[in-house]
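Predict the holo structure. Ligand: fe (ii) ion.
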Amino acid sequence: MINETLSKALNDQLNYELFSAHVYLAIAAYCSGESLDGFANFFTVQAEEEKFHAMKIYKYLNDRGIRVTLAGMDTPNNEYSSVLDAYEHAYEHEKEVTRRIYHLSDLAMNDREHATIQFLKWFIDEQVEEESMFDTIINKLKRIDKDSNAFFMMDSEFAARTFTPPAL
Ligand SMILES: [Fe+2]
C-alpha cells in the first residue's frame, strides 16, 4: 500500500515529466526557428522520451490502484541566446528532475515501499544517462564555434536521433 504522501509525490512527478516534455518542445521550436533542424529533432525526441516517462508513472499508479490527476503547467522558457544556452538550460532541468527522483526514492525508502523503490530504480539509472548526455554535448558545444563546420555536422548528426518506446 502506497501512503498518501508518496502517491501524491508520484502523481506530481508524472505532471513534472509532462512539463519536461513541454520544456523540450519549446527548445525544439527555438532550434527550428534558427533553422537548426537536427538540434530541433534532438529536442523533439527528448520531449517524446519525457512523455514516455510520464506514461510509465501513469501505468504504475494505475497498477497500484491510485487515481491519477493532471495539473496545469507553467510556461516553459521559449527564448534562448544560443543552442549552447538551450542545452545548459536542459542540463539544469535534468538536475532538478534528478533531485525530485531522489526525493521520491527517499520517501519510498522511509516507508519501506519496496515495489516503489524498485520502480524508481529505472528512473535513477535514466537520470545518470540524461545528465551524462547533456554534459557531453555541452562540452562539445563549448569547444566549437557556432558558425563552424563542426557545429553544422553536429546538427546533421542529431537529425538522425529517433525514439523507439520500450515496453512501459
Ligand atoms: Fe524524464
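The radius of gyration is 17 Å. Helices lie at 4-33, 37-63, 83-110, 114-143, 149-158.
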